[in-house]
Amino acid sequence: MFFIYISLSSHSFNYFLHIACAGLPRKLDHALHNHSIFLDPFPPPNDSDFNLLQCSACSRTSSGFKYKCCEKDCKIHWFKIDVTCCLVPEYSTQKFHEHPIFIAPYNYDHEIYPCNGCKRRLTKTRLQCTLCEFSICYECATIPEELHYKHDEHPLTLCYGEDTDGKYWCEECEKQVNPSEWFYTCNKCCITIHRTCLFGFYVYLKPGHTLKYNRATTVEVLGNSSSTRPICSRCEERCRGFTYFKVDLKTLCSWCVFAPPKR
């Protein structure tokens, strides 16, 4: 991956950008939205509403570059799409399906389509096959086909589900992997890992932000990169993923941060 490195002498930090991100257009039209959308390169200010950082395409929370609609009377309130989803081509061929797929129009009627990757029910946005009923969500369409795992010398590859009676177990959480769903595997080491165990739920939320949840609860985003991972106050396990959170002086992992409290 190539980077552009920019040093800002008037500030006490260095600023890194991918070449693709540095060349993003300031304005564009997208198949998911009726209005033109504009690039917003600014990080969210402290005390921003956590819910307003969700991408309208994939529903992931993102603090990076995004495009947003500026029309006051827009039918889709607060429409915004992060750069990763915005770069998905309108029409393409992919390894996970034999036919070409395209960006389906925004589903105003909330008709339900199952995602063939994660099996979730899609009611707003999706990518659709041109020849069959195959549908896939933006989150599944934008995860890498290959990546490096810190505990394996070989790269992990994305498996697009298997029709098998065999049982797989996740190397990270030690729980069973559903072979019909997408997961990562290393065939040389015979290991399998859940997607969420690799990425967590907030992979696009950068550490260092202090946000508001439901306009009341203060949520501090922290990086989970130390040699000793903190223990979650709710599930009492070591925090997994790239980030963890401080909420009302409690340490919470990305699995528990917005889960209902235990009774």
From TrEMBL:
Domain of life per record: Eukaryota
Keyword Repeat appears in the UniProt entry: yes
Record domain DC1-like C-terminal: where: 219-255
InterPro entries for the chain: C1-like_sf, DC1, DC1-like_CT, Vacuole_Formation_Reg
Keywords: Repeat
Span of domain DC1: 150-197
Listed PANTHER family: CHP-RICH ZINC FINGER PROTEIN-LIKE-RELATED (PTHR32410:SF204), CYSTEINE/HISTIDINE-RICH C1 DOMAIN FAMILY PROTEIN (PTHR32410)
Protein name: DC1 domain-containing protein
Naturally occurring in which organism (per UniProt): Brassica cretica (Mustard)
